[in-house]
Amino acid sequence: KGEMGDWNNERFDANCQTLELSGENCNSNKIKNNHGGFINTLENLNLVEKHEAYKKKAIKNILLNPSKYFKNIINNISRMFFNIPNSYFYQRESTVLRLIPNSILFTLISFSSIFSILNIRKMPKEILFCIFFIFTYLGLSSIVPAYARMLTIVVPFLSIWSVFSLYCWKNKFTSNL
Length: 177
Known about the structure:
single chain, mainly alpha, 8 helices
């Protein structure tokens, strides 16, 4: 409860360096209270065994709390685009810098999605591949803790798709795609 689906490390200080440089508190004790007991049981395991234990715990949590997991997926999508929300630490100033350009990008994705659905049979295979790649990548990224840097990978594909969609829409080119 109170967490947003983001990742932290076994020392509970993944974001502390950035916060301490700005003079803010890390809140690592809150994370430790929620996860310290489980993390302590993994101390003597090798990396493969830890991975299996984490995976087993994650699946158990997802099955016990499917609505919370769905909320975390929404939070992951929001973090990819806007770098918010985050658990246990204050937002950074850089978050504000992402809001305007990524809002434009999000709007272009929305427009391109509607345009593409309405013209799906006329779309070139190359654009359909871009769309498939974009949504597969973003969909799979959203089911695990996701961050703004993960969106960066598909921005070239998003740009190609958006420019194509805008060009066709502006030039009424849809009948001859």
